[in-house]
Automatic annotation (TrEMBL):
It comes from the Bacteria. Residues 64-235 form the RES domain. This is RES domain-containing protein.
Amino acid sequence: MNVNLNQCEAIFDRALLSTSEAEFCHCITPLFDVYEILSVSFGRGSTFWRARLIDGKPWPRLKDMDYPPPDKARVGRLNDAGAPCFYLSAKPETALLEIETQEWQQLQLAGFKIKPGEELRVILVGEYAFVNKTGYSRITGVDPGGTIANILNTMPPDDAIATLYIDRFFSHILNDPHARDSGYLLSRALGAVLHSRIKDADGIAFPSVRDANGSNFAILPEPSDRVFQSVTCALAKAGKNRRYGMVEFEMVGCAERLDAQEHFVWMDPYQPGTLGMYGMTKDEFEKKVL
């Protein structure tokens, strides 16, 4: 069954009034008659970032920069309480904005790459609308082979317009700045629906909540353990608060490697402005591929 814009709006309105995950999932089911879920696989070339505030001393272990254990996992934008996922950003600046860094706070910023020979498959939300508007992908920087544009162009015009509208709605659900007020009910429900339809997806990529053109990732624990490799970790101090998503920070330390117990070994003395890299090939290191 095709879904026109008026029908889309009626579905959106009902879904937004949902009081349970099951009700939301039932409401949005007709949207998938026209909406084709996008997914993409990432390889070694991409770097993913996570930031944490420091209270006193730096986080000493790699696991401190990973997803929390189940007993400490609170309900989140795309996870239930007790069911953690690894939240990451495509850029370090986005990671800093996501943790609502305040002036002069100390923070720790870790970068992760995909292990050689591994791939990370993620569902994309918001890419139809972004590519249609800008001509390039928010996630990959390019629309490989014009794939997303071709999908839209080969659809009947009414379906293409509905797809763009639905994509904007799904983006709104996932990056709603007020989602916390409802315990992330709708975003968690949408995440569950998307994973139920793309069962081999390792996670979901969605527009940043706090960075207008940034991207975030919510990766499931098992694939996170399988594919990610720590390649850098920096200590930084936030600068003055700026408007319009501008982030100002100064690096004040970095790890030069991980020891056998996966504790960070900090560069001492630290050379200002240096971002240490480890666990990379000679070619990657020489090209400083991050």
